[in-house]
Amino acid sequence: MTDPVTIPARRGKATRVAKGQTIKVINTHGEQVVDTWAFNVDDLTEFMSMEHSRAHILKVIPVVGDTMLTNRRRPILTFLEDTAGGVHDTLMAACDKHRYKFLGVEGYHDNCEDNLHAGMREIGLNAPETPSPLNLFMNIPVQPDRTISFEAPVSTPGSYVLLRAEMDLVIAFSACPQDILPINGKAGQPTEAHFVVAP
Amino acid sequence: MTDPVTIPARRGKATRVAKGQTIKVINTHGEQVVDTWAFNVDDLTEFMSMEHSRAHILKVIPVVGDTMLTNRRRPILTFLEDTAGGVHDTLMAACDKHRYKFLGVEGYHDNCEDNLHAGMREIGLNAPETPSPLNLFMNIPVQPDRTISFEAPVSTPGSYVLLRAEMDLVIAFSACPQDILPINGKAGQPTEAHFVVAP
């Protein structure tokens, strides 16, 4: 077991993971959304896809036992454990510069899109685009009238999701820097999170 | 008012639309799903995005008055009218060769991904990727337990959606060739549909 790797608050981090290894994504302080992407390490144009995964798992939120698919409908990540209350999101795009401008921010604001690309560059890779992310710990309830909203997480400090890599892949995370909506807790204080890759 | 253009059964069709023009998408025979894409005509890497639109309209299904956004969060299509019961889908990827292989089809099966690209090529354009489509008339209910399923349409013959172009764009359609799941009606018989572009 390796030491936990820090996903710094408001920043991105990526790492290579071999097929069969597991990745534990830890919500260290309990209210931090972690945008998560996975790419085929041999061809970054193949990546985990929310719209292909939903058609396969037949849920808007994956549960333990579900396998996420790539945009070529191949298995890429399986949910093995989830101690975070089972609340995640597959519906929302990564936040980006346009989103913060819309929310009234003047000038630059950290954002998950830039964090993805910075995290990938840090290990010498270029993500070809910004796929719709798997937003771990993110609470977007779908109401019977089909409306959705940005709510505070229900996860608790130290809760985690354990994923298994179904191919050799690159996994990328962003500790979401959203501090305007309550998506990272009502205090609006983004924090670090951690992950552990194990054989 | 121009004559209706046919989207042939199991096939794709695309056309250029100027900002401010309207597009009426007609479910001619009542049970046909029409996968719909829109691209910025001046830069095809900017296109209508389900994940960015959901974050803006705060619904999983757009209703009259809602404006869909591009992957750069700019307005691209607005719902002006909907006589089709308000049931559409933003959750599911376009069907593709991998999907039909998974469903047990041997050999080639028409699919919405190929239809998108064929329709674009027919007017001299190349779609840079296959964005997650706006699946008009497609019935994917979301249950309180977060499960989803492929159901028959609730639309009726001649029902339609009227959209307004918010930028100069290319709109592409696929009359979905799905004949295994009941998504185009329980009879599993994909049909043609039609559209009309008006000033």
Automatic annotation (TrEMBL), chains A, B:
Q: Which domain of life is it from?
A: Bacteria
| Domain called DUF1989: residue spans | 6-170
Which InterPro entries does the record associate with it?
Answer: DUF1989
Among PANTHER family, the record links this protein to: RE64534P
Name of protein = Urea carboxylase-associated family protein
Species, as recorded: Methylobacterium nonmethylotrophicum
